[in-house]
Amino acid sequence: MTYTTTERGHLADFIRGLAAVVVFAFLLVGCPVAMYAMGGSPIPDRFPSWEEVGATLMRRDTDQSFFLATIWFLGWASWCLFIVTVCAEMINYFAGRDKPVLPRPARPLQHLVRELVATATLTFSAAASLATSATAATHTQAVTDVHAGSAPSGERDHQSPGRVAPPQEPTASEWTPLLADEAPSHPKPDPRPERTHIVKRGETLWDLARRTYGSGALYPKIFKTSKNIDQPDGVPALTNPSVLHPGQHIRIPHPSAPDESSSPSRVTSTPPVPEQAAPPGPGKANESRTSASPGPTSGQPTPTQVPTPVVAPPRDEPASPPPSAPNDQESAGAPLAISLPSGSLIGIGLAAALSVAVAATRLHRRRRYVPNPDPGAYGSTTDSPLPAPVLKARHAHLRTYTDRDAPAPSDPDLVREDLRTAEPDHLVVGTRDDQALTVRLSGLSLGLSGDGAHAAARAITTELLAKAHRYRAEVLIPQADAQALFPGDDITDLCAALEGLIITPSLDAATSRLEAELLRRGRVLEMTEQPDVPALRAEDPAEPLPTVLLVASVPADNGTVQGLAALGRRYSLGVLALGPWPSGTRVGVSSDATVTDAHGPDAERFTGARLFHLTTDDAAGMLRTIRTATGTETDATPPPPNADAEPQPELEPEPSVSAVIPPPRQSEEARHAPVRLDVLGPVRLHTANGPVNTGLRQRARDLLAYLAVHPDGATRDQACADLWPEDSPESVVPMFNTAVTNIRSILRTATGLSEPMYVIHEAGRYRIDPDVIDIDLWRLTTALAEARRATDDTARIKSLTLVADRCGDEFGGGLTQEWAEVHRENLRRTIGDALANLARLIEEDDPEQALVVLERAITHDRYSEPLHRHIMRLQACLGRPDAVRRTHELLAARLGELDAEPDDETRKLLSSSMRASNRNR
Question: What are the residue boundaries of the LysM domain, all occurrences included (predicted)?
Fold first, then answer.
């Protein structure tokens, strides 16, 4: 007789529970019987007098009778304490209340009883689960036999691979009863629409939904029915789906409740899917995955098909993610793998992490950029270009929002979303059969060998490093292995900037550090009385206990590392071995990162999979981006205007976009052009009849914004390469022509003017007709150009005042292409330079107006620390210490969105202003 993985797990739980019951029986019955046989009843026939007590204590115990009587009495007292503790623990366990902590001498006995009670309950829940599995299996076999018997013999012998089998009854993995809840004796729908469950320590709505419906993503259903129910005295109400308190009552709707609205005519069969998603959490049996497939061609169930409302979880669902995971991009609809031009293959998880790193890099550069006082340098300062693989990954991540018809997040939105993300508990390391292959970090014991082992390990390590900031995860790697995976100085530079990376001189040093960390965590768990590190994180999220992953070449005879890997699940430790690995799962990887052979507990999940992999050049570019995202890059402040920048041939060249290119000379009629195009903010068209709200396609809007940045025009090939870099050359030409046609058609209809071309094509270049379309960006760049040409401060102040009036919102709101982001950053920096220069020119004669200009500047660039310091200096000169303090608080709050703090220079400026104010009082 063979057992499935789930049945083997239930059988092991049953055996452990049965052993606990035997130990219970011995302690409860065997011990008192043995003590009674040796010493009789502990209740004396009469109480001795004081004289008899004194005589007994004073005489010499030659026959050891007094000693044996003392031991006998202590045994009965310990047994009575054991009985009291058992009763209290059982009442607390089934009532779902917090367990009081006994004094330290009795605490080991309390822990023993607690473990025995919890383990003994496995006997009943596992037995019910096994019975349910057997019933379901028997029923499924009967249904299959009846169906096979009713089919013609030819069909029974020659069924096609695509033929749909009859739907099966839910197995134990599809409906796993909660511990201490009533287990259904059969999978038929429960007549009760919902049932009440008492929350136990460590439980989450995600886990409850996963165990009840098969998918944790259905937790809102439980929260909706439970948030308004009355709670016992002293237990808080359920107001946040991410926060559960022990003892809370929640209502769990049955899978066949009316709101599921499943009818026989809509039932589809749900054959089990091979397990290649996340492994089960601690203490849980492996849960079978199911997915919907088409029913019979007739659309009607056969007489042997029983409608079964089974909810199918997503195939790439995380093992146990918290309900609040807003930026989890590894969801349905997102691409599983992203191919890079170099041949590397990465997952959407790494792409999302790199997208956040790009956003953080830009924000930190904006924070530290010092405005350039030279008007002749407006628009000439640019940032170092981002590596090509990083740009590709970021574009793939942002495209997931477009595919869901969701607005693309801004850089601050991405960073704020990342700050709310919990520590990673799993990683998607590859794909198999078009499904995600997920590994759990806590307790990871994986060895990679073969030609593609280093490339696969490089991809895993890079993704974890991208997510390792803010004490979420930690990578421990010996120096030799670090240089083998990441040649060059990039990994060393990242180690100095990232708290989540530790490079040790040798494997022995890494092992010693890992042992010390295990001992420290063991003491913390003992003091907090938590079973494991994940439970401690749930109880105290502020405790810095990140998941630690050792990445190293481990000799086969190193038993220490193997022992640490065996204890990893409880202490949130993992081992990724480079080379043969006698413990855990061993995977052979070919040069293209395809798994050729696998051995160990998870061998079946890895067989035939293709792992993500990175080349050394791609990994180097990603590590540099991860380092700059910490805000510690040395080149964050741009070089002086005349400084020569170091060429970087390995990086993709930055688009040649200047923020101050003046438009062509316009005629007098252009001042009253029939069309106005706004690109400072969302791209919009206006005519004399009002805004053009319908008919204009998104590609046409993108093209208008692009041509506004290129007043001298651009070739079709250049525009297509910048606007739609992911599309094939054969498809972009029709798209470009359709966009131009759409612009002309919409504007001719909106204005009633059919003669103008609006988008002119001459000499192989396309450009916007400046005589019929007025653009806000051109008015701004004209004022900037005049400020550059000004020969005295009066003319310069006049031009810069026009800049302050025309700067508007940021360029191209909603555009995510690289050309738009580069121009947006350049324009923001140019406007900041201009406004800071205007404030400097007028602050001596009109400091109040200078403050107004600087307020406009920090509205345009809310994270610029030098601009905030400029305001603080002006406020201090005007004798406004309270205003200085409020500006500092505003800056601190804004930098807090980036997980950063004001620099020492800013704090010193605040302190000096406060001291000067106190002296003047």
Answer: 195-252
